[in-house]
Amino acid sequence: MQNEYISLLKKNIKLNINISELLTSIYSINLPKAIGICNKLGFNPNKQLKTIKDIDFILKILSNFLKLVEKNDKIKSKKLHNIETIAYLNNLKNTKNLKYYRLKNGLPVHGQRTHSNGQIAKLKLHFNE
Length: 129
Description:
By secondary structure, the protein is mainly alpha-helical.
């Protein structure tokens, strides 16, 4: 064969592997997820890539699907981070912590000076209101 490798999401992949193995070579996709993706797209997960006639069409479908999956994972991780941050701030608020007061008022939290430093941050805080 002249092309023994294909490119999917900036990775070179051999043609003599199964579709499920192809998907598991991508970060954050394990075997059960790969089999589920194949079933949703209507592919046999045990079929080898070199036996498929229209590889370009399949790779376009897979790359679009995987980009969608990556976007969803990033969105979920950002939402989870925001939820954890809100829970942390609520905990500080409920315990009437000094750190919450300083965060709320835009003052430095980790012991920095306030007399001569942080004037720009204070100005930005008041202009945003």
